[in-house]
């Protein structure tokens, strides 16, 4: 413990300083009362830690896609800033976060390719690393087929995750491609934790990412019961093969139970994730993100000298940026502040003034 404190004291101080600039409740309140995307951009530039990210932006003409690009690019900036304060083993693990960011952008592109508008990737993403390769969004925008995408990512680790879909257009459905990337990521991060981290650090990492994998599997199973028409074999094939506090027996019980209400009952009675799900609240992804956000904060508070405090910080930053994006979307659709607040993670104010 003393050695870890000595080794990561500079990292802990950096995380503390960066966390101190996070958005506050009053910032969310102010943003939700605005009426245009340029107004949101101006507030962020003038009053928050996004001043540097938006320093070259002309906020009066900034459109939604470009604003989101600049905000999401801040995640990579934070990761690079933290890398300066880590040792070699931890650096490898933090670089895995870069890979996760690349996977998320690759999933965005797959969705755009699926609807026939790959060129829109230039409006929603910036260049990003895929393994040791830097992928330019201009190159992605020129791709119109799955086989062309596979050629582009061939030098990267993600080619391995998707190569089984090559040559079989019937299997190249968006849902299965995203599941394959999620499964690849979950298995990768577990290998990284065991390979590069100390036993104590690895235990924390496996708790964090194992919980996330459990929750993603439960959401998938609940969605299957609620709306998907899939055989049991298809369901098992899409489950992330990483269990933390779930078991194969519980997974089987949920897969074979007759209804979504029965699935909720099994989750509440036989798993530790009952608080994460409620049958009267079907905003499953939001409840999962709330659960994970609480875990990130606990890890940051209880283990400030752990590399997981850095990991937790990055995830909380990503949640903050997604909250801003939700506010932008709410403003575009004319939602009232109290309606927008329902989509925000970690927003607990009971009453929002219009």
Automatic annotation (TrEMBL):
Family matches, as SUPFAM superfamilies: V-type ATP synthase subunit C
Highest taxon listed in the record's lineage: Bacteria
What GO terms are given for molecular function? proton-transporting ATPase activity, rotational mechanism
Keywords for this entry? Ion transport, Transport
The protein here is known as V-type ATPase subunit
């Amino acid at each position: 413990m003393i050695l870890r404190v000595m080794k990561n004291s500079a990292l802990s101080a950096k995380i503390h300083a960066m966390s101190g600039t996070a958005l506050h409740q009053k910032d969310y309140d102010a943003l939700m009362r605005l009426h245009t995307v340029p107004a949101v951009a101006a507030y962020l530039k003038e009053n928050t830690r996004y001043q540097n990210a938006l320093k070259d932006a002309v906020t009066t003409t900034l459109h939604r896609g470009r604003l989101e690009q600049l905000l999401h690019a801040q995640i990579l900036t934070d990761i690079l800033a933290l890398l300066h304060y880590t040792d070699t083993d931890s650096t490898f693990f933090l670089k895995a976060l870069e890979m996760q960011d690349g996977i998320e952008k690759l999933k965005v592109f797959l969705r755009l390719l699926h609807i026939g508008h790959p060129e829109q990737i230039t409006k929603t993403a910036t260049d990003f690393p895929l393994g040791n390769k830097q992928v330019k969004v201009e190159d992605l925008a020129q791709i119109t087929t799955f086989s062309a995408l596979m050629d582009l990512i061939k030098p990267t680790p993600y080619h391995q995750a998707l190569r089984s879909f090559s040559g079989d257009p019937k299997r190249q459905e968006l849902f299965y491609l995203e599941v394959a990337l999620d499964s690849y990521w979950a298995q990768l991060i577990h290998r990284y934790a065991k390979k590069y981290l100390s036993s104590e650090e690895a235990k924390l990492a496996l708790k964090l990412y194992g919980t996330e994998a459990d929750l993603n599997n439960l959401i998938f199973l609940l969605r299957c019961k609620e709306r998907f028409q899939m055989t049991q074999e298809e369901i098992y094939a899409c489950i992330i093969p990483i269990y933390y506090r779930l078991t194969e027996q519980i997974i089987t019980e949920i897969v074979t139970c007759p209804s979504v209400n029965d699935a909720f009952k099994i989750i509440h009675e036989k798993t530790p994730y009952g608080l994460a799900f409620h049958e009267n609240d079907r905003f499953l992804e939001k409840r999962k993100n709330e659960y994970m956000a609480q875990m990130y904060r606990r890890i940051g508070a209880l283990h400030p000298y752990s590399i997981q405090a850095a990991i937790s910080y990055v995830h909380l930053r990503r949640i903050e940026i997604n909250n801003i994006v939700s506010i932008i979307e709410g403003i575009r659709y004319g939602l009232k502040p109290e309606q927008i607040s329902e989509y925000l993670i970690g927003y607990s104010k009971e009453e929002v003034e219009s």
